[in-house]
Design a protein that fits this description.
The protein is of the alpha+beta class. Helix content is 38%, strand content 12%. Strands 1-8-7-6-5-9-4 form a seven-stranded antiparallel sheet, with helices on both faces. Strands 2-3 form a two-stranded antiparallel sheet. The N and C termini lie far apart (55 Å).
């Protein structure tokens, strides 16, 4: 079967349905995105902006472009917020690579660094030696440990921390999107043995045709265990030994069979380059592997949701929450962190600030927060969204 013919047939079959599903002009919304797929319209780097004592926000993004990380050695850790406020999930220069999808691990690293360089070093050391470290090569594990050593010695650079974000993403990206992995093979982007194709073939192979059929069952929610096993066998020929297709719990409904869904775990090196978004499960796994004692709490909706969460945090705790990447976003596709330093000082960290957003913002140590800090929390609270299955996201509470 020719791919062009197949596409034409599918379009004609579903065209009436797609037309009926189009939103009206009064109901238009931003398209749904995978978790952590938020990307601003422009990728142009911007300068970082400081702030006064009264307005304790750092790293203001004054445009729709991407805010990049600062450069050079970090010489002063007397105020960790001043450091974290210059650390986004986007590298200071060069290709952005996986930066658009690494807000989950970036939020955890920022949470640890807000407790000081020693806490950040412990997090990186634990990630480099813990249960997820097998997804990294030996040089990559040594690189994380070297960054931890430099944090302790006061010689760490922003470039090292940016690189650490990428390595943490690789280590923690254990659950990949099954539909996406199947699509990569169907579209001819991945060849047997794992090589990436530079051109798209005109003819579909038997494996591609069969995966196309199996993917329809996955999308319809009718995939059987036998079909999942067949899918695993086909994908293993492309992604390699260690590819696993299995049912996983919905994090919001653990142990409920009716809410389970199929996921794929790809071999470590393929997972290192795969660009699926971080899930709540992966975030919890990385927090645990990094030594962050953790618990999970439901996220409420409403303008005071994050203010209430901050009031409930003990000194040294942080809560990492999925929200929309922008005010207009319709999906909970971006991780941010609210927390308290060991002295009780409240803060939030947004590793990929959009237009008008701050990278970091500090409040007070007491139960009552300054009006400007509360206003920023209300801004983020307004971005809390339900998941596609109607559930509210859960916050991961960590202590590094």
């Amino acid at each position: 079967m020719k791919i062009s013919n197949l596409i034409s047939s599918v379009v004609q079959t579903f065209k009436p349905l797609l037309t009926a599903l189009q939103p009206s002009s009064s109901d238009a919304a931003s398209p749904s995105r995978a978790v952590d797929a938020y990307q601003p319209a422009s990728r142009a780097p911007l300068s970082l902006h400081g702030a006064s004592h009264e307005t304790s926000g750092l790293g203001l993004n004054g445009s729709s472009g991407t805010l990049r990380t600062a450069t050079g050695r970090i010489s002063d850790w007397s105020n960790p917020a001043a450091v974290v406020g210059r650390l986004t999930q986007n590298p200071s220069r060069g290709a952005l690579a996986d930066s658009a999808v690494r807000c989950g691990p970036s939020a955890l690293l920022g949470s640890a660094l807000m407790q000081g360089p020693q806490a950040g070093a412990r997090f990186l050391d634990a990630a480099a030696t813990g249960p997820l470290s097998a997804r990294l090569t030996a040089p990559e594990r040594r690189e994380l440990q070297a960054t931890a050593t430099h944090l302790r010695a006061g010689t760490c650079t922003y470039e090292e921390l940016s690189r650490a974000q990428s390595l943490l993403y690789r280590a923690g990206n254990t659950q990949n999107d099954l539909s996406g992995a199947m699509r990569e093979v169907i579209d001819g982007h991945v060849l047997p043995g794992g090589a990436r194709a530079t051109t798209t073939p005109d003819e579909m192979t038997p494996d591609q045709e069969r995966l196309f059929e199996l993917r329809q069952h996955l999308t319809a929610g009718t995939m059987t265990p036998a079909q999942a096993a067949e899918t695993q066998a086909i994908l293993s020929r492309y992604y390699g030994a260690g590819t696993r297709v299995e049912l996983v719990d919905d994090p919001s409904h653990p142990g409920v069979d009716a809410r389970r869904s199929y996921s794929v775990t790809l071999p470590a090196r393929e997972g290192a380059s795969e660009l699926s978004g971080f899930s709540d499960t992966e975030l919890r796994g990385l927090a645990s592997a990094g030594g962050g004692g953790q618990r999970h709490v439901p996220v409420a909706s409403g303008g005071d949701a994050l203010s209430t969460m901050v009031r409930g945090l003990a000194p040294g705790e942080s809560a990492t929450v999925r929200v929309a990447g922008t005010d207009a976003g319709t999906a909970a596709d971006h991780f941010v962190t609210v927390g308290r330093r060991a002295d009780g000082t409240a803060f939030f960290y947004n590793s990929d600030p959009g237009n008008g957003d701050y990278t970091a913002y500090s409040g007070s140590a007491g139960p009552t927060q300054p009006a400007d800090f509360e206003a920023q929390l209300r801004r983020l609270s307004g971005r809390i969204r339900r998941d596609s299955d109607g559930d509210m996201p859960e916050a991961t509470i960590s202590r590094f």
